[in-house]
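Z., the sequence and structure:
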Amino acid sequence: MSGSPNAAPAGHSASDRSPEEVLTEPAKVPPHGWRARMRARPSFRPVYRVCVFLVGLTFIILGLALAVLPGPLTIPPVLLGLWIWSREFRFAQRIFESFLERAKETWAHAKRHPISSTIVTVGGLAGAVAIGWAMAHYQLIDQARELVGI
Protein backbone atom coordinates (compact mmCIF):
# COMPACT_ATOMS: atom_id res chain seq x y z
CA MET A 1 0.00 0.00 0.00
CA SER A 2 1.28 3.48 -0.81
CA GLY A 3 2.26 5.87 1.97
CA SER A 4 -0.25 8.46 0.76
CA PRO A 5 -3.66 8.43 2.47
CA ASN A 6 -5.20 9.44 -0.87
CA ALA A 7 -3.78 6.59 -2.94
CA ALA A 8 -5.63 3.47 -4.04
CA PRO A 9 -4.50 0.21 -2.42
CA ALA A 10 -1.54 -1.46 -4.15
CA GLY A 11 -2.60 -3.46 -7.17
CA HIS A 12 -5.90 -1.63 -7.48
CA SER A 13 -6.70 1.09 -9.97
CA ALA A 14 -9.37 3.71 -9.40
CA SER A 15 -11.77 1.71 -11.58
CA ASP A 16 -11.34 -1.42 -9.40
CA ARG A 17 -12.71 0.33 -6.31
CA SER A 18 -16.35 0.25 -5.28
CA PRO A 19 -18.52 3.38 -5.73
CA GLU A 20 -18.61 3.76 -1.94
CA GLU A 21 -14.79 3.87 -1.79
CA VAL A 22 -14.66 6.47 -4.55
CA LEU A 23 -17.34 8.67 -2.97
CA THR A 24 -15.82 8.60 0.50
CA GLU A 25 -12.22 9.04 -0.63
CA PRO A 26 -10.79 12.20 0.94
CA ALA A 27 -9.58 15.00 -1.30
CA LYS A 28 -5.85 15.56 -1.59
CA VAL A 29 -4.47 18.08 0.88
CA PRO A 30 -1.01 19.51 1.54
CA PRO A 31 0.81 17.14 3.93
CA HIS A 32 1.59 19.78 6.56
CA GLY A 33 -1.63 21.84 6.42
CA TRP A 34 -4.27 22.10 9.13
CA ARG A 35 -6.61 19.73 7.27
CA ALA A 36 -3.89 17.07 7.26
CA ARG A 37 -3.54 17.56 11.02
CA MET A 38 -7.33 17.17 11.41
CA ARG A 39 -7.23 13.93 9.43
CA ALA A 40 -4.35 12.62 11.54
CA ARG A 41 -6.55 12.59 14.64
CA PRO A 42 -8.62 9.40 14.29
CA SER A 43 -11.21 10.41 16.88
CA PHE A 44 -11.83 13.81 15.30
CA ARG A 45 -11.77 12.89 11.60
CA PRO A 46 -15.35 11.54 11.28
CA VAL A 47 -16.75 14.54 13.16
CA TYR A 48 -14.79 16.92 10.93
CA ARG A 49 -15.98 15.20 7.73
CA VAL A 50 -19.62 15.25 8.88
CA CYS A 51 -19.35 18.96 9.71
CA VAL A 52 -17.82 19.74 6.31
CA PHE A 53 -20.57 17.71 4.63
CA LEU A 54 -23.35 19.50 6.55
CA VAL A 55 -21.97 22.99 5.91
CA GLY A 56 -21.62 22.26 2.18
CA LEU A 57 -25.08 20.69 2.06
CA THR A 58 -26.56 23.76 3.77
CA PHE A 59 -25.23 26.05 1.04
CA ILE A 60 -26.35 23.72 -1.75
CA ILE A 61 -29.88 23.48 -0.30
CA LEU A 62 -29.95 27.27 0.12
CA GLY A 63 -28.98 27.70 -3.53
CA LEU A 64 -31.66 25.27 -4.68
CA ALA A 65 -34.25 26.99 -2.48
CA LEU A 66 -33.33 30.30 -4.11
CA ALA A 67 -34.05 28.78 -7.53
CA VAL A 68 -37.69 29.89 -7.22
CA LEU A 69 -36.54 33.52 -7.31
CA PRO A 70 -35.71 35.21 -10.60
CA GLY A 71 -32.10 35.91 -11.37
CA PRO A 72 -28.79 34.16 -10.80
CA LEU A 73 -29.18 33.89 -7.00
CA THR A 74 -29.08 30.10 -7.04
CA ILE A 75 -25.60 29.76 -8.52
CA PRO A 76 -23.27 31.32 -5.87
CA PRO A 77 -24.51 29.30 -2.85
CA VAL A 78 -24.43 26.04 -4.83
CA LEU A 79 -20.87 26.75 -5.98
CA LEU A 80 -19.84 27.69 -2.45
CA GLY A 81 -21.29 24.43 -1.11
CA LEU A 82 -19.52 22.45 -3.84
CA TRP A 83 -16.26 24.28 -3.08
CA ILE A 84 -16.60 23.44 0.64
CA TRP A 85 -17.18 19.80 -0.21
CA SER A 86 -14.24 19.82 -2.65
CA ARG A 87 -11.90 20.72 0.22
CA GLU A 88 -12.65 17.34 1.87
CA PHE A 89 -14.32 14.95 -0.59
CA ARG A 90 -12.58 13.73 -3.74
CA PHE A 91 -15.81 13.30 -5.75
CA ALA A 92 -16.68 16.97 -5.19
CA GLN A 93 -13.11 17.99 -5.98
CA ARG A 94 -13.40 16.29 -9.39
CA ILE A 95 -16.74 17.99 -10.09
CA PHE A 96 -15.40 21.37 -8.99
CA GLU A 97 -12.24 21.00 -11.10
CA SER A 98 -14.33 20.22 -14.19
CA PHE A 99 -16.52 23.25 -13.44
CA LEU A 100 -13.43 25.47 -13.15
CA GLU A 101 -12.10 24.15 -16.45
CA ARG A 102 -15.40 24.96 -18.19
CA ALA A 103 -15.46 28.39 -16.54
CA LYS A 104 -11.95 29.12 -17.87
CA GLU A 105 -13.00 28.02 -21.37
CA THR A 106 -16.10 30.23 -21.17
CA TRP A 107 -14.06 33.22 -19.99
CA ALA A 108 -11.56 32.71 -22.83
CA HIS A 109 -14.48 32.55 -25.30
CA ALA A 110 -15.95 35.75 -23.84
CA LYS A 111 -12.61 37.53 -24.25
CA ARG A 112 -12.36 36.36 -27.87
CA HIS A 113 -15.95 37.47 -28.66
CA PRO A 114 -16.65 40.49 -26.42
CA ILE A 115 -19.55 41.91 -28.42
CA SER A 116 -21.64 38.74 -28.61
CA SER A 117 -20.82 37.91 -24.97
CA THR A 118 -21.96 41.36 -23.88
CA ILE A 119 -25.18 41.03 -25.87
CA VAL A 120 -25.93 37.62 -24.34
CA THR A 121 -25.14 38.84 -20.80
CA VAL A 122 -27.17 42.03 -21.09
CA GLY A 123 -30.00 40.10 -22.75
CA GLY A 124 -30.02 37.56 -19.91
CA LEU A 125 -30.08 40.28 -17.27
CA ALA A 126 -32.85 42.13 -19.12
CA GLY A 127 -34.82 38.88 -19.35
CA ALA A 128 -34.42 38.29 -15.59
CA VAL A 129 -35.61 41.84 -14.87
CA ALA A 130 -38.57 41.37 -17.24
CA ILE A 131 -39.55 38.10 -15.55
CA GLY A 132 -39.29 39.71 -12.11
CA TRP A 133 -41.41 42.64 -13.24
CA ALA A 134 -44.05 40.35 -14.81
CA MET A 135 -44.20 38.19 -11.68
CA ALA A 136 -44.77 41.26 -9.50
CA HIS A 137 -47.10 43.10 -11.89
CA TYR A 138 -49.36 40.16 -12.67
CA GLN A 139 -49.05 38.64 -9.16
CA LEU A 140 -48.02 35.30 -10.66
CA ILE A 141 -46.87 33.82 -7.35
CA ASP A 142 -50.20 34.59 -5.67
CA GLN A 143 -52.08 33.15 -8.66
CA ALA A 144 -49.99 29.98 -8.53
CA ARG A 145 -50.64 29.60 -4.80
CA GLU A 146 -54.38 29.94 -5.39
CA LEU A 147 -54.21 27.40 -8.20
CA VAL A 148 -52.34 24.91 -6.04
CA GLY A 149 -54.47 25.63 -2.99
CA ILE A 150 -51.85 26.92 -0.59
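Residues 1-106 form one domain. The two ends are 58 Å apart (CA to CA).

Let me know what you think.
H.
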